[in-house]
């Protein structure tokens, strides 16, 4: 389970993974205070995507993607094309 090096690649892959099968995907956020690292993991048990950062500017990006995925998870409308509008 290697970590993605760039945020853009990770965000694109996470959105794609979610849209393929929304019922199987889960998102985990983990902050380790001793290291100062924030890790985001998106998985469907077959594919695992991970991103780790210690930069404060990346926290806003992670928060935005996490919010976007949560809105999709609770919405009742179809998931196709919803991520491209944002």
UniProtKB/TrEMBL annotation:
Its main location: cytoplasm. GO terms for molecular function: 7S RNA binding. It is found in: Cytoplasm. It comes from the Eukaryota. Keywords: Cytoplasm, Ribonucleoprotein, RNA-binding, Signal recognition particle. Residues 5-73 form the SRP9 domain. GO terms for cellular component: cytosol; signal recognition particle, endoplasmic reticulum targeting. Pfam families: SRP9-21 (PF05486). InterPro entries: Signal_recog_particle_SRP9/14 (IPR009018), SRP9 (IPR008832), SRP9-like (IPR039914), SRP9_dom (IPR039432). GO terms for biological process: negative regulation of translational elongation; SRP-dependent cotranslational protein targeting to membrane. Component of the signal recognition particle (SRP) complex, a ribonucleoprotein complex that mediates the cotranslational targeting of secretory and membrane proteins to the endoplasmic reticulum (ER). SRP9 together with SRP14 and the Alu portion of the SRP RNA, constitutes the elongation arrest domain of SRP. The complex of SRP9 and SRP14 is required for SRP RNA binding. Belongs to the SRP9 family. PANTHER family: SIGNAL RECOGNITION PARTICLE 9 KDA PROTEIN. Heterodimer with SRP14; binds RNA as heterodimer. Component of a signal recognition particle complex that consists of a 7SL RNA molecule of 300 nucleotides and six protein subunits: SRP72, SRP68, SRP54, SRP19, SRP14 and SRP9. This is Signal recognition particle 9 kDa protein. It comes from Betta splendens. The lineage of its organism: Eukaryota, Metazoa, Chordata, Craniata, Vertebrata. The gene is srp9.
